[in-house]
Amino acid sequence: MSAHPDVGAGPVSGRDSIPGPGSMPAPGGVAGVASDSGPVEYADAGATVAAAERTAAAFAAAGFPKMPARTLLALVSSETGGLTAAELGERLGASAAAVSGAVRYLQTVGFVHRVSQPGSRRDLYALHEDEWYVVSMRNSPIYEKLASLTDATADTLPEGSAARARVADMARFYRFLNSRMPALLDDWERERSGEGPP
């Protein structure tokens, strides 16, 4: 990973330091201006953080835990893909305990990992080098679990009832998604690499 700072209007010390709310530039600037001789600079850090927060809110609305969603989007939208717990807390305006719980959740589901920094007592929480979201979907048994749980619900309903048929159909849908996911992820990897459809 590079050591470029994520945002800021001037020199920034440390990795991906994020200015606090009182030092955020006013909205309306240009986000993401790259220089041939220096790091990527964001003329509108506030807009970047606000956009990431909106995306995190959409994740949360879809069922992803709110604080892990905010933390994940903070990491994804950082230039290096990694931040310390203190930097996450500053960026998110969150307590150390909230950040700790969020990164622990993200580590459990395989989205991030902890990286020791030589000469520093602060570990970095970073996205995996590979396609972390693809890896997480490949390793996730969520659709099969949902199918099994839905089947268990169907088994409690009367044979031949409309309710049982409806719930059983839901289980079939989740198993359909589970069976198609590997091929879908293979298609995405080809699309991402520029190979196009098989």
Description:
Helix 1 (45-61) packs across helix 2 (66-76), helix 2 packs across helix 4 and helix 3 (85-92) packs across helix 4 (96-108). With 198 residues, the chain is mostly helical. The strands form 2 sheets. A 3-stranded antiparallel β-sheet has the order 3-5-4. It has a two-stranded antiparallel sheet with strand order 1-2. Helices cover 52% and strands 9% of the residues. It has 7 helices and 5 strands; from the N terminus they run E-E-H-H-E-H-H-E-E-H-H-H. Strand 4 (112-115) and strand 5 (124-127) form a beta hairpin. The two termini are 32 Å apart.
Question: Summary?
Answer:
With about 200 residues, this protein is mostly helical. It has seven helices and five strands; from the N terminus they run E-E-H-H-E-H-H-E-E-H-H-H.
